[in-house]
């Protein structure tokens, strides 16, 4: 294989972000949360585009759970349109999460298949980090790529600012002579206790493990074959059975995998599988501002505090009334929130769940999620507003025998041709025009008009207009769950 200048950014979009509940949930995890004007995944794609441009590369690869396929396309397409200059966005869709080593191994298989006579560098980036400025990130990424081209499996080391006990650390060894700013890795250290973290901060030899990597495809696959052959062999098998289709929102391909073969992939991180075992591991010191937004405290740090140390994250039209309150973070929705005589609190308001926590317990929010899982609660998985390829629906009321939804359909989008066994539906258009298939009839329903879909009737909803279609759906029946859908035809390829 020959070296080239080709660099392929690989964005890993996984994890539930349980410490950011109730905003982050399984079906709408942390990468999709807005920090500033854009979601974290959109910001990551923007950085990936900047690196690809600097390297004259044309590919960006997303590895994610298959349930995020269309949501990712919606988030990424505007960035590629405005910044990408014809770049192709490819997706590897996992049927289930199997950790970072299998995800990166499959990315390497994809790169090897697409460029069989080359040895491209994979620049592996988590989808949920906050990094500024972009220009400094590009500079450090180019250092890491230069080390990767010399055969180093290269990590990004974040210069520590505090004795953080929630991050892994990397001890820097001797400088890599031919690469400015790169050091051989002496050892990896898992999350240390406070006393040890303070020592690491004082001695200056340790950096935080930033979870980002630059590595040549051939070097990675060789390291996997040596240190974790189970991952290497099964990734080959999974890739051999991949099915390819087109990305509906951007130039590029979408790959899906056999669920049974995918489930046989070992569940192991790239750190354990390769980085902590290989002898050719380097680290570059990153000078950019970095946060993994791993907790509400980290998110609060991104907000400007008032004189009392209070911060607010305004996501809706609600108003905050703060009286005699100190060092408290409030995430606002559309409701008014009043704080009176409180200190050191995290208050997170969402339409269906409210979190109130001591600020020092920000890492323990995941215990709330664990409790909800034991109770079988859907508050772990879904928001009241659920994203679909065609738009969104919001559950307004859910009671015995009936459910009321607000449905919003994007211009030109279409729901599947479907049928329900156990429920009938009334549709009332409040904005736009709907093209409705109801049994053998196809007709238009305009603003302030309605139609009725009996149980057992095949039906479809299409927005033929150029504006969003908004309607209210009233479901009636003895069973109203989402699995009572029989699809006959679907433009998005869903079963």
Taken as a percent bin, the fraction of beta residues is: 25-35%
Rg from alpha-carbon coordinates? 25 Å
CATH architectural type of the largest domain: Alpha-Beta Complex
CATH topology of the largest domain: Spore Coat Polysaccharide Biosynthesis Protein SpsA, Chain A
Q: What is the CATH superfamily label of the largest domain?
A: Spore Coat Polysaccharide Biosynthesis Protein SpsA, Chain A
According to DSSP, the number of beta strands is 32
**Spatial sequence of strands, sheet with the most strands:** 22-23-24-31-26-29
Query: Which overall shape is indicated by the principal axes computed on the Cα atoms?
Result: globular
Mean pLDDT: 92
Structural class: alpha+beta
Tell me the helix content: 10-25%
**How many helical elements?**
11
Number of domains: 3
The main pleated sheet reads as: 6 strands, antiparallel
CATH classification class of the largest domain: Alpha Beta
Terminal CA distance reads: 41 Å
Query: Which regions contain 5 or more consecutive residues with pLDDT less than 50?
Result: none
Blueprint (SSEs and pairs):
Blueprint: E1 7-13, E2 34-35, E3 38-39, H1 40-54, E4 59-65, H2 69-84, E5 88-94, H3 100-114, E6 121-126, E7 130-132, H4 134-149, E8 153-158, E9 169-175, E10 182-189, H5 194-203, E11 206-216, H6 217-227, H7 229-240, E12 243-246, E13 253-256, H8 259-263, H9 270-275, E14 281-286, E15 289-291, H10 296-300, E16 311-314, E17 320-323, E18 329-332, E19 337-340, E20 345-349, E21 354-358, H11 365-374, E22 385-388, E23 391-399, E24 402-409, E25 417-419, E26 423-431, E27 434-438, E28 441-445, E29 450-453, E30 459-462, E31 469-477, E32 486-489
Parallel strand pairs: 1-4, 1-6, 4-5, 5-13, 8-14, 16-18, 17-19, 18-20
Antiparallel strand pairs: 2-3, 6-11, 7-15, 8-11, 9-10, 9-11, 10-14, 12-13, 20-21, 22-23, 23-24, 24-31, 25-32, 26-29, 26-31, 27-28, 27-30
Helix pairs in contact: 1-2, 1-4, 3-6, 3-7, 6-7
């Amino acid at each position: 294989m020959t070296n080239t200048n080709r660099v392929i950014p690989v964005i890993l979009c996984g994890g539930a972000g349980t410490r950011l509940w109730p905003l982050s949930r399984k079906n709408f995890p942390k990468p999709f949360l807005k920090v500033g004007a854009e979601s974290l995944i959109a910001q990551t794609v923007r950085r990936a585009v900047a690196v690809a441009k600097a390297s004259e590369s044309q590919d960006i690869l997303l590895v994610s759970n298959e349930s995020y396929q269309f949501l990712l396309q919606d988030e990424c397409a505007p960035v590629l349109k405005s910044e990408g200059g014809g770049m192709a966005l490819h997706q590897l869709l996992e049927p289930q999460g199997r950790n970072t080593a299998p995800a990166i191994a499959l990315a390497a298989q994809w790169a090897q298949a697409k460029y069989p006579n080359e040895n491209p560098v994979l620049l592996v980036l988590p989808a949920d980090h906050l990094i500024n400025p972009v220009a400094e990130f590009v500079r450090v990424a180019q250092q890491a790529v230069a080390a990767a081209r010399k055969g180093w499996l290269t990590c990004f080391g974040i210069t520590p600012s505090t004795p953080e006990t929630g991050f892994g650390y990397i001890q820097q060894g001797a400088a890599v002579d031919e690469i400015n700013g790169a050091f051989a890795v002496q050892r990896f250290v898992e999350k240390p206790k406070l006393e040890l973290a303070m020592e690491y901060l004082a001695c200056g030899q340790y950096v935080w493990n930033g979870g980002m990597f630059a590595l040549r495809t051939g070097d990675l696959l060789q390291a996997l074959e040596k240190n974790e052959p189970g991952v290497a062999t099964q990734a080959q098998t999974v890739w051999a059975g991949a099915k390819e289709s087109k990305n509906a929102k951007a130039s590029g391909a979408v790959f899906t995998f056999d669920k049974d073969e995918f489930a046989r992939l070992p569940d192991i991180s790239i750190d354990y599988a390769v980085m902590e075992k290989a002898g050719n591991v380097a680290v570059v010191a990153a000078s950019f501002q970095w946060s993994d937004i791993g907790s509400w405290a980290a998110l609060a740090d991104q907000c400007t505090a008032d004189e009392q140390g209070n911060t607010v994250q305004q996501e809706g039209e609600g108003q905050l009334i703060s009286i005699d309150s100190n060092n408290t973070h409030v995430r606002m929705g559309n409701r008014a929130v009043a704080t009176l005589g409180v200190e050191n609190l995290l208050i997170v308001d969402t339409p269906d769940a409210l979190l109130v926590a001591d600020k020092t317990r920000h890492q323990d929010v995941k215990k709330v999620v664990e409790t909800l899982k034991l109770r079988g609660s859907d508050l772990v998985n879904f928001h009241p507003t659920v994203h679909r390829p065609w738009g969104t629906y919001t559950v307004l009321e859910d009671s015995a025998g009936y459910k009321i939804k607000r449905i919003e359909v994007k211009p030109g989008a279409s729901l599947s041709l479907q049928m329900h066994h156990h429920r009938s539906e009334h549709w009332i258009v409040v904005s736009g025009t709907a093209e409705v298939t109801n049994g053998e009839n196809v007709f238009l329903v305009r603003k302030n008009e309605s139609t009725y879909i009996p149980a057992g009737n095949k039906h479809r909803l299409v927005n033929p207009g150029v504006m969003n279609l908004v309607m209210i759906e009233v479901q009636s029946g003895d069973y109203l769950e989402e699995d009572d859908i029989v699809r006959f035809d679907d433009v998005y390829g869903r079963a």
